[in-house]
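This entry is listed as follows:

___
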Amino acid sequence: MVAKLSTIKRKIKNGEKLGFSERARAVNKGLLPSKARKKKNVNK
């Protein structure tokens, strides 16, 4: 099941935990930063 963007935005706003697929969708939509990008920038 794909989570609705409105649900993901509400969870982010309220500080609730996101499930794996919700987190992946939020990163893809630019709502959350990618952990992989953070690690990559640290090593530069």
The CA atoms of residues 28 and 44 lie 23 Å apart.
